[in-house]
Amino acid sequence: MAAVRPRPDPQQSDFAAQGHCLIRAALPAETVEAAAGPFRAYVRDRHAGLNGFERSLGASATRTVFDLATAPSSIRELVCSPVLGRIAADALGVAAVRVLHFNGFYKPGGGMATPWHQDMGYIPLTCDAVVTLWLPLVPVTAEMGPLIFASGSHHDGALDLAGIDQRYPVSVNAPMQPGDLSLHSGWTAHRSEPNRSGRTREAVAISYFPDGARVRSAHGGPPMMASLLAEALAGIEPGSPARGDTVPLVYAHGGMPPFERDHGS
């Protein structure tokens, strides 16, 4: 990916208050559109093992199906972009971030709704500071199942999600174009409507955490937490820093350390 400076957007300042924000034209549309084809082929391959429920949802809610080791170089380049890493670091207010994992949310036309959830419920890290960047690879309209957020819900930790839309203001991120970015905190409750269009909603979500965060046990957690621990954090003992090739450092204020710059770990 060409080195592109993120374009400032006043809406990014909403992140701390609302737990989410939408940044228009954060990346050149042509950069994202060029990645759409390789992502489509990769997602088709990785989604081949999904069951009917997961296919309708557009992703698996219980296991990771994507990883940087199997991804083509064009996909790794986008997922590990320092431009996106800087946006994530700025949103979290930290000096350096690593990629925890990424996912292809390809909700087919007629695909089902995604229920309210909070990402932190399945993150096997000791920190609360996790941010997800959601990038549409195609234009996303209101009928295609865009993201819906309970604004401010990230301030209150783990929540009873029943009736949450009656307790918090609700915000919908639509329409979106390739190059736009939606950011949300790991504690921000969010969902999506069914895809009522005849087109697949193609989007990629990348989750970041501050460098230095430590791994925690998945004991008693949901299946996705155990899957992330086994895949993205394999071989790292609970209590140890979450570092290694599977969770690459993608942005550091002042420049990447030499070893990580040379080896991408």
From TrEMBL:
Segment forming the signal sequence: none
Coiled coil keyword on record: no
GO-annotated molecular function: dioxygenase activity
Entry keywords, A to Z: Dioxygenase, Iron, Metal-binding, Oxidoreductase
InterPro entries listed in its UniProt record: Oxoglu/Fe-dep_dioxygenase_dom (IPR005123), Phytyl_CoA_dOase-like (IPR008775)
One Pfam family recorded for the sequence: PhyH
Keyword ATP-binding: no
PROSITE patterns: FE2OG_OXY
Domain of life: Bacteria
Domain Fe2OG dioxygenase: 93-212
Family designation: Belongs to the iron/ascorbate-dependent oxidoreductase family.
Protein name: Phytanoyl-CoA dioxygenase family protein
Organism from which the protein derives: Sphingomonas rustica
